[in-house]
Each structure stands twice: as structure tokens, then as C-alpha cells.
Amino acid sequence: MKKLLVFLGSCLLAGLFVFGSQVNNQVQAAEKTYEIGTDVTYPPFEFANEKNQYVGIDIDIMKAVAKSEGFKVNIKPLGFNAAVQAVQSEQIDGVIAGMTITPERQAKFDFADPYYKTGVVMAVQKDSKIKGLEGLRGKRVAIKTGTSAGAYATAKAKEYGFTTVTFDDSDNMYNDVVNGNSAACFEDEPVMQYGIKTGLKLKIVTKPAEGGEYGFAVKKGSNPELIAKFNKGLAKLKANGQYDKIKAKYLSTESTKKATVDYSFFGLLKENKDALLSGLGQTLLLTVIAIFFATIFGVFFGLLGVLPNRFARGVSDTVIYIFRGLPLLVLALFIYTGIPSLTGQKIPAIVAGVITLMFNEGAYTAAFVKGGIGAVSTGQMEAARSLGLPYGKAMRRVVLPQGIRIMIPSFINQFIITLKDTSILSIIGILELTQTGKIIIARNLEGFKIWAMIALIYLIVITLLTWLSKYIEGRINN
């Protein structure tokens, strides 16, 4: 028994070391490239085009500056809130995401020279009778987490008697108003203008307020050379006219009209099938790797929980209690942004995702391993011991084979749960199926149809796995 536990523990540590080393080698191979975080749904500043490549004013400016100053950038679409936290934990080098320069942010970030001036506007449904802030009394307003527009709305909420509800991305915020759940939303003027020009069923009813400026940011005191390079490159872009060309490319009426695209369900499926399949592939890969480590983790702590040793059982119960009790979203953010803040060591998103799933799913696996072994009649162990078998050998030869028959359906069910739980990892920028959906929706604003496709894909895969589970369970019981 001790040998089995040592073997499982060694496998877990060795596997994580090899997996982490391979990912870190890839990161180190590109250590001269700056990792730049951005939003996922903030057109015209950042969004994915028809080829699922990130474009927009922010992206084009960042790439043009990099080319001008002789460095490379790796753009990471994390979402605004996650990108800001990733900079603070030094997971990435900088953030360019329509980030308004404010005194509060300047206390924690170093900003480059401003590259865009904007203001906050309020938008409502096209047929709404609301004409200004006065019409919001007693109503609900949608805002986006961590934005200056959201801060402006929050500051006005008490004065004008409305309540706010927050969203992590712009598309969900807009749809909350379009669907009538909220009376209005607040957004930066060029972003809202772009959305309306490309088919968003809203209208602007206020003049720009709280005029601010966007800036590229790094963690305070951490990257002065990158700030200097950005400022130098931006000055060159403005001097040679490239900066004005980038703005015109996305803000002119002609460039923001919807292309002639088939917006039917099957038309959108045909257009985005490659991106969706890529997202599905990443989801399945992440699931397989995570369930591998979660199984080793779960079996190890599950077996600890049935040892005739109070300390071992206490360790098992504590681990299961902690990791089953933590919400997966909180655990993912803690591992990806919290731990690097304390240690100063970067954790690649894919590694953080696997560790998150390993702890969470492994805790549930440990629980049903304990349950499976506990379901075997105690008489089996007593009979084996009466025949002179030591505890470890009796467990391996007699109890475990019977317990495994009971556990197998639960193992497959846990695989299904892990597959679904990968969607939460979009919060740390892993480009799995859910994150892919967000990116596609940011481009075409067809939220219902795209989410229906993603739901259908999950349903098909989970149905196949469920059939497999029933087949295996039937074979075992026959």
C-alpha cells in the first residue's frame, strides 16, 4: 500500500514537472517578446476578425510601435479585468485595452503617453423613451467591470436613483439592454458608436461626459524601458501619419458597415467552423490532461483517506474539504494571478488551468475513491487478513479490484464534469470553446446563435461520453 501511494505521488509530481517544464520552455524561448494583455470584446479597439485574428485600434497601434522600435509582442485576449490583474501579478508585461488614465490607476500602473481621447455616453434600446439620466430613476443599468464608464455610472447611481449590474464583457452588457433586462448601459463613445454602426440595436442619448484619455500601462516601476519604447514609437506613428490611418481604418463609416455575410445559423456555422473546432480541440486537450493529473491526485488522497492511520485520514479529509469548497473561478484566479503576486514567478495560463482542474476535480475523485472502497464489505478485508495477507496486499489484491468496479462509472462522470468546467478557464485567457465563442460574438454580435452552436457542441460530446459510461457500466455489471 505504501509503495502504491509513493508511486502515485511520484507520478503526480513528475507529470506536473514535465508538463510545466515544457510550457515554461516555450515561454522562455520567447522571453524577448513582450506579453501584452487586452480585452476580448471591445471593438473598434480590440476584436477578432473573420479569420479569428485580433485586430483593432489598440492592437494595430501596439504592433506598429513594436515594429517601429524593433521588438515583438504576443497579444493575449484575457478580458479587461483579468488583463489588469495579470499585469499586477507580472504574468504579462503590459495591457492595452482602452484603459482610461485615472489618478487611482496611476497609483498602481505606469502609463505611456495617451493615445486616444474619449468620453462616456449612455445608450438605450432603439424604441426607448429614456432621453437622459433623469429617466433612469428606479431602473436597472448595465455596466462593465473595471471600466471608467462603469465607475461613472456607479458615481451617478445614487443621485439619479438607479441600480447597476456588472458584466465582464461588452457583449453581455449590450444584450442585457437589448433584451430589456436593463434600461441602459454606459460605454466609451467610440466603442458604442462602432457597435451601433455594425448593427447593435441601441441608440446614444447623452453627450460625452467625463472625458478621459486611453493609455498603455505596465505595473508601476516594473518596465520603464517598455514605456519608453512605446512613447517613442507612438510619436513616430503620429509624425508619419500612420496613427491617423489606423484610426480611420476602424472609425470611418465605410469601414464599419457589415459585410455581406450569411447570418443564418448554418451560415454562421460554416463561417466559424474552423474557430469552433479549434476551440473544441483545446477544450478536449485540456480536459484529458487535467483528468489525468486529477485521477492521480484523487486516487492518492482517496487511498490516504482509508488508511488505518488518523493523521493520513485527516490529511485526506482536509484536502477534499478545501478543494471541494473553493469555487472553481476563485481557484483559477488565485492560482493564475494570486500566487505569482506572492512568489514573483509567472505561471502560464495552460499550467494554471490544469492545476486548477486537478485540485478541484481531484478532490471530487478522492471522495468517490474513498466511497468506492468503503462500499466494499468490511468482511472482504477481514477475510483477507485472516488468511495472513498484510494490509497493503489485502487492499491491492482483494478490496481495490472490487472498489474499482464501483468507481469506474464515477470516473467517466467526472470526465464529463471536467469537460464542462473547462469553460470557466476562459477567465484566465485560455482559448477553449467558450472563449472562442466570446471572440466570435464580439465580431458579429450574434450571441444567441453562437451560444446555441457552442451549447450543441457540448451536448453532442457529453452525450457520447454518457453513452460510453453506460456501455462500460453495463459491461462491468454483466
Write up this protein.
Helix content is 61%, strand content 12%. It has 478 residues and is α/β, with parallel strands linked by helices. It has three domains: 2-12 and 264-477, MetI-like fold, CATH 1.10.3720; 33-114 and 215-256, Periplasmic binding protein-like II (D-Maltodextrin-Binding Protein, domain 2, 3-Layer(aba) Sandwich), CATH 3.40.190; 117-213, D-Maltodextrin-Binding Protein, domain 2 (3-Layer(aba) Sandwich), CATH 3.40.190.10. Helix 12 (328-343) packs across helix 13 (349-374).
Largest sheet: 6 strands, mixed
Count of beta strands: 13
Number of distinct helices: 17
Low-confidence stretches at least 5 residues in length (pLDDT < 50)? 26-31, 255-259
The string of secondary-structure elements, in order, is HEEEHEHEHEEEHEHEHEEEHHHHHHHHHH
Residues in helix, %? 55-70%
* End-to-end CA span: 29 Å
Helix and strand content put the structural class at alpha/beta
| Overall number of structural domains | 3
| Shape assignment | elongated
Radius of gyration: 26 Å
In the CATH scheme, the class of the largest domain would be Mainly Alpha
Q: Beta-strand percentage?
A: 5-15%
CATH superfamily of the largest domain: MetI-like
| CATH topology title of the largest domain | MetI-like fold
Which CATH architecture of the largest domain is right? Orthogonal Bundle
Mean pLDDT: 83
Write the layout of secondary structure elements.
Layout: H1 2-29, E1 33-38, E2 47-48, E3 54-55, H2 57-69, E4 72-77, H3 80-88, E5 94-95, H4 103-106, E6 109-111, E7 116-125, E8 140-144, H5 148-160, E9 163-167, H6 170-178, E10 184-188, H7 189-197, E11 202-204, E12 209-214, E13 217-219, H8 224-240, H9 242-251, H10 265-304, H11 310-325, H12 328-343, H13 349-374, H14 378-386, H15 391-421, H16 433-444, H17 447-477
Parallel strand pairs: 1-4, 1-5, 8-9, 8-10
Antiparallel strand pairs: 2-3, 6-13, 7-10, 7-11, 7-12
